[in-house]
Amino acid sequence: MNLLLLAAFWGVLMMFISLSGRSHATIRLIAQVGMGLLFLSTLAEMQGFLIYDLKAAEMFAMDRYGLVMLSVLSGCGFLYFLLSGRDMANVGSDYSEYFSLIFFIFCGFVLVLSFTSLLMLFLGIEIVTIPLYILTGSDKRNLKSNEASLKYFLLGAFSTGLMLMGIALIYGARGTFSTMEVVGASGIPTRLLLGGLFLMFFSLAFKVSAAPFHFWTPDVYDGAPTVFTSFMATLVKVAAFAGFLRLFDHAFGSLKTTWQIWAGAVAVLTLIIGNITAVYQQSVKRLLAYSSIAQAGFMMLGLYGLGDGAREGMVLYAASYSLATIAIFSVLTRMNDYTIEGFNGLAKKDPWIAGILAVCLLSLAGIPLTAGFLAKFYMLQAALSAKYGLVVVVIAVLMAAVSVYYYFRVLQAMYFRAAEEGAQFPAFSTGFKRVLTLIAILILVLGIQPGLLLHYLYF
Amino acid sequence: MPINYYLFLSLALFTIGMVGVLTRRNAIIIFMCIELMLNAVNLLLVAFSKMHHLKNLALNASVGTDGQLFVFFIMVVAAAEVSVGLAIIVMMYRNIHSVDIQFLNRLKH
Amino acid sequence: MIALLLFLVPLIGGLLTFLPNKSGMARSLALGSALLSLAGVIAGLTLFKQPLYWEFDAEWLQTLGSRFSLKGDAMGMLMSLLTSIGVLLAVLGSWNNDVQGSNRFYGLLLWMQAGMMVVFLASDALLFYFGWELALIPAYFLCSIWGGEKRIAVTFKFFIYTFVGSVLMLIGLIYLQSLTPNHSFQMQAFRNLEIPESKQVWLFWLFFLAFAIKVPVFPFHTWQPDTYEQSPTTVTMLLSGVMVKMGLVAMIRWMLPILGIGVFIWSDVVICLSVIGILYASLIAIRQDDLKRLIAYSSIAHMGLTVAALFSLSGFSNNSNVVLQYHQVGFQGILLQLFSHGINILGMWLLADRIERRFGTRKLSELGGLARTAPTFTIFFLLIAFANIALPLTNAFPGEFLQFNALFHAQSPYRFVFLVLAGLGVILSAIYTLNMVRRIFFGETNQATENGLRLSTAECLALSLVVGLILVFGVYPQAVLDFTNDFSREYVKAIDITRFLAK
Amino acid sequence: MFSFPNIAYFIPLLPLLGFLVNGLGRKHLSKGAIAWIGSGVLALAFAASLVVFLNLPSGGPTLLNAFDFIRIGELRIPFAFQLDALSSLFLLIITGIGFLIHVYSSAYMHEESAEHYGRYFAYLNLFIFSMLLLVMGANYVIMFIGWEGVGLCSYLLIGYWFRKPAYTQAANKAFVMNRVGDLAFLIAIFWLIARTGSVNFVDLPAALSSLSSSDITWITMLLFVGATGKSAQIPLYTWLPDAMAGPTPVSALIHAATMVTAGIYMIARSNLLYTAAPLTLNVIAVIGIATALLAASIAIRQNDIKKVLAYSTVSQLGFMFLAIGAGAYGAAVFHVMTHAFFKALLFLGSGSVIHAMSGEQDIRRMGGLKKVLPITYFTFLIGCIAIAGIPPFSGFFSKDAILLSAFLKSPILYGVALFTALLTAFYMFRMFFLTFGGTFRGTDEQKHHLHESPLAMTLPLMVLAVLSVIGGWVGIPELFLHGGERLIEFLSPVIPVVEGHAISHSTEYLLMGLSTGLVLSVIFFAWTRYRQYRSEESSAPFARLLENKWYVDELYQTAIVQPLHRFGGWLRSFFEPKIVDGLIQGVGRSIRYISQQIRLLQSGQTGNYALWMVISIVVILSIQFFVRK
């Protein structure tokens, strides 16, 4: 719970700092320090150190898994601040507010990762999404940004409605919000309960942008300021997935036979739509939006083949996917040209950055020796054990092959094509490069020895 | 009065809201329809909490209160959403002088 | 220990090679690493034969049930020898053509070697898969950066194609692992599996597609001629000399002993495909004007024969030693051919590369009369060409002889048809090879070939090594056969269908 | 070491040595040195063969086991040599004639530059080495190694003047056609291995029992197909006439005396199998006689001196196969020997003529060479008489033996064979008279440096002439000389003598008299016809058919070669890119297309998005609640 308190505090802090009109540098520094603290505090909590022990067991209770997930999130968040903190200044004037909103979102993460009551799940998700509406629209003059935020808001609110209805029905069926009790010992679900279950499934599927509830994703990711897209596409999505898993694992685990097949179906649909649609994209930003849908499809496999393997895999997936995507976005943010051609000849101009991007792309494509491969591997392994697993898995890997197609288009642009004359590449600071290098190393290390991360789940 | 009446009523409200979202073009009205959906949920929650309260009154006097508690949270969150949402719509209006969502099609494909 | 060394030397060598920017430096580093690993293999084949030197096992990915375990059986040793020879030849062959960015070039080359070593030595399925991809990625970059003008599209096709195959294989591996009692990826655990026929029927294809694409078996071969044509010859050498063998080694190690029944069910289909491939590729080769494509197709034909022979090994012995004996004969031939064909095709590419660099063309129609202007080169080429058509006293003859023998003993009603059709391949190979020789070396010279070509010391060294190996193993193949004898005897027992059904 | 049997190792090793020295040192050695080395090793080899021949123990063969070529479990293929009557006889023929021809070549090839001179002798030595492997090999695999080796050398030597495209074409043709036969040979070997598990000749008698009659028929058939390739029988004979592209000594050595008889040797080796396969024997007899007749008929209308000899070779080989078909292996081997003598003689003679005519090969432009080339003329005449089969020249005895065996098999065969013999006599003397008789018809500058060849060339001619006269006496039949048929008797350990073809002496006399008389009259006819040259441009369709060799080459071209080429071209330019690769590319293309379409779902309209969501919700819920059980 350390993170909850710290994040809330730091969020407020950042707001007040904006009043005291500090320079961007200091604001950024404070924010980065704060995020670092969040990360450390989570690690500390894993060692059993608590700033203050919240007694709210019937509302939320943090467990080992949540902590590991949270440390991954906050760690990635820290790297994200290091890489993209500077770029937020280009979005709009309210520099420190952006940070504070992100800190509040982290509070939401904590709830989503630790809820034991549907109420907390609801609150968590809302705490995450409402600031996101703002961040999406934060580029006020930019019509695309406005449009994105409005779409996001309308559809988001709509899905919130669905979730609430679901919760209400469940409550009607069982008279409680506690995840432990929503499914009776009998395990024979009433229609009311099932209806609620499915409504929640839909709304969560919406949050993680799984087909056919994914339609908002490309537009919103495309329209939002790139720095925030990076945040939404990675940490938010991952956290939402963690909540998704947590709910269907703890609350509806005993009804697996009922929803599993649908999880599988949604996963397959998501994979197909995400990957196939990405093939045709020309803008890297939109391509990444679709690829994030595709990756969501793979994470859905984790839900489909829910089990220990899937849980481990989800952590690994969270780490690998977030790291790679954050890195790519951080570079993309600074590019002048978002189209794939914009990357032509980057390897000649800046081999170091190109190399790191290559590692990230390979990881996203799931090539061995990168974390991305093992993450996918876990998911496939989990899915294969489920009913109709083989069909789903075959489709999944074929779609992975398709994903190779579009990820490698970027790779080819960087390495094998010559830059058009007059093409400008931004200059990257050494500090920036250091952080990127760190990310690349993390990806490779996790790809070769994932145990380093996963063993935290157990001791 | 049997619980089903409440159930059907609120489901009807919910559906009306949903249909509104699908059919209307004015962002404000769509937003109101969403609010309608939320309130349908509120109604349902209250009804259920009452039902559960009466059902197990013997065991525990405070049972079922949590449902009504939830309603307050929903209201709060809804209020927050309203503030943000309206802000966004206003911003929108300031830029394109319209709140018709059909004009929101710069982002597609 | 040797096994681990063979993996680490190129890996670290590659890493080091990346660092310097002076081309000469990288070149020497690469040569050093190549020599070192070759020395390692030779030491392993002579002084440290005992298994304990060739086995290495360490904890790795415990949660996935995979271990980092390398185990060099006779085949593994042979193939690692081939690999290190191949890399050595590749470095020697490219010694004089200065590639820009040679540090990256040689670095990737060595990493490719590391990957192939893992494939040949891994006794853990997941590790094997890692090696499989580790060998592929550098190849992809090498081809797309230093290749010909159509390189990007072509190598991309090659990559996607093989990638699809390998992910399907990955599913197969995961599935098998889920069947093993303690969820292990160890080869032994796989071999002990008792997989019902109904499953083997489709599991077979998950694996076969991956390997068939790599080998390649008709009709999955279309990536190959394009890739060989477009990629730099140094890489093509490794692709066709060594990497192609990965597919066969994988079939030998990860299919026949594990999915014996599935293999038996589909063996006729596979043999039929390979035989078609032989004739198909040979016929195209006859009408081929591009030297590199011609060699590519001829290699498809040769591999087709090997695959056919391999799948004709799967059958019932009913524990009769005679049958096992015949299977062993065939299998020995396959092992021999794996090695010999590697050597020959390496030599072929060296020569083709030399021609292309000297005359700037690969078109047979634009060459001619070299026999007069470049006699030494001609002799090398003739020797290797004759090895290519499996003339007796060249290393290819015993291999193909035993392979045909295997085909003759296939437990298939059509075996005689297969044999005769595959035999036609021998005739066709003579036709296209001699045509190639005739059009390059005989007849009158044109102004391009008027002033011949001179071989550098490095190239002479490389070619002499090749020719030496060709003749030595052509006259005394028993050296290899003795080496693989025990392995093959055990192996044919392991793939015997009778054994599978007994389970 | 230098004593029997180990000395036999030197027989193949010496030529190999010569090959290496001449091949590697061809840039540095002088022509003289090259010639001396090339011929010297042969002389030594011949001496060694003599030693072997003289010390040959009566009865069973002597085996020399060098090392194991292939040994896998039970299957054992040793690199072993077998010395017995048959192989030792062939050793003598090969090394002896080989030596003479090396000597001859040293003069004949003298215009060549030192480097190519060295190449030539290297090839020649390599050929002798492979040929020796072929005859000495103690099992079919070693024999096969030699078998393909000689094919290779013939390829190299036919294409020796590699700058002439036609020549290299001919070389390829020869190699490929041989390959066809070799394939059959290989399959036969596999069959043997499959049934008997051994390929050693010494195991054959034992193996016979374990072979079913159908097995034997198949194996013998396949072996025979192999033989037709090497020994230029129907249908694989067309390469031999083209092979005349090589230097004339090569034609003499490879394409007349030694290599082409490998088929005979192989079948004689496996005579046990063949005796057990009457069907195959019949086929062989028919093929043999057919080839003999066909080739002879073509030879009648050929004007290239070497082509005539080439077709006569094919025809003579046909005779040998006829003998085999008739079960008279001994007679076949006998004819191989005598044929080696007189055919080598004839070829070398023609070489001497060509040498004198400075490269002219067309007999219509020769004539009247009797005076300028006395030695050549005389030796050539002997050769012609020998091949025509006039007693007591060598050809007579061997041919008579064949005719006799044919008569015993069936009178029809005998009739055709006799007719072919007459044709032989006719075309040989036609060529002879056109070449040496009459008046000179060549150009003037050809005329003015007409000259007798040097001693290095004439000496071999004389030696061979002597052999062609007396060579046949080793096989004088019983009825002339008690204790005749020495050769048959000598070969008996390898080729069991079949007793009981007793026919009355009178019949035998009759047959001989008949053939001799007819031959003499044919020669006289030829003399009357060609004593004075007159051009024979007859447009009679049959004559043209003969001139164009029955259009067999054209037939092969249109029926086999061109269709294959066209098919290959179609595969390359259509099937491969459009169908096989097209499918693969199609997958990619269709994915891109689908992607292009699916994008359109992303209409950008918030309403649609919500609609899609609601629709899918309704669908899923209804399936869940109303369809799914």
Describe this structure in words.
- The complex is a heterotetramer of chains A (459), B (109), C (503) and D (629).
- Chain A has a domain at 252-459.
- Chain A contains 18 helices and no strands.
- With 459 residues, chain A is an all-alpha fold.
- Chain A starts with a helix and ends in a 5-residue tail after the last helix.
- With 109 residues, chain B is an all-alpha fold.
- The longest helix of chain B has 32 residues, at 65-96.
- Chain C has 21 helices and 2 strands.
- Chain C is globular, with a radius of gyration of 22 Å.
- Chains in contact: A-B, A-C, A-D, B-D, C-D.
- Chain B binds chain D through residues 18, 21-23, 25, 30, 101-102, 104-109, and chain D through 599-600, 602-607, 610-611, 614.
User: What value does the average pLDDT of chain C take?
Assistant: 91
Distance between the termini of chain D: 94 Å
Question: What structural category do the secondary elements of chain D indicate?
Answer: mainly alpha
Main β-sheet of chain C, in a few words? 2 strands, antiparallel
Strand content of chain C: under 5%
Query: Helix-strand pattern of chain C, N to C?
Result: HHHEEHHHHHHHHHHHHHHHHHH
Instruction: Report strand order across the widest sheet of chain D.
Output: 1-2
* Coarse shape of chain D: globular
Largest beta-sheet characterization of chain D: 2 strands, antiparallel
Physical arrangement of strands within the biggest beta sheet of chain C = 1-2
Layout of strands and helices, then pairs:
The complex is a heterotetramer of chains A (459), B (109), C (503) and D (629).
Chain A: H1 2-19, H2 24-46, H3 64-88, H4 95-114, H5 118-136, H6 143-174, H7 191-207, H8 216-223, H9 226-251, H10 256-279, H11 284-304, H12 308-334, H13 346-349, H14 351-365, H15 371-384, H16 389-416, H17 430-448, H18 451-454
Chain B: H1 3-23, H2 27-55, H3 65-96
Helix pairs in contact in B: 1-2, 2-3
Chain C: H1 2-18, H2 23-46, H3 51-54, E1 55-59, E2 67-71, H4 74-93, H5 102-121, H6 125-146, H7 151-179, H8 187-192, H9 197-214, H10 223-230, H11 233-255, H12 260-286, H13 291-311, H14 321-359, H15 370-373, H16 375-388, H17 396-408, H18 415-441, H19 457-475, H20 478-494, H21 497-502
Antiparallel strand pairs in C: 1-2
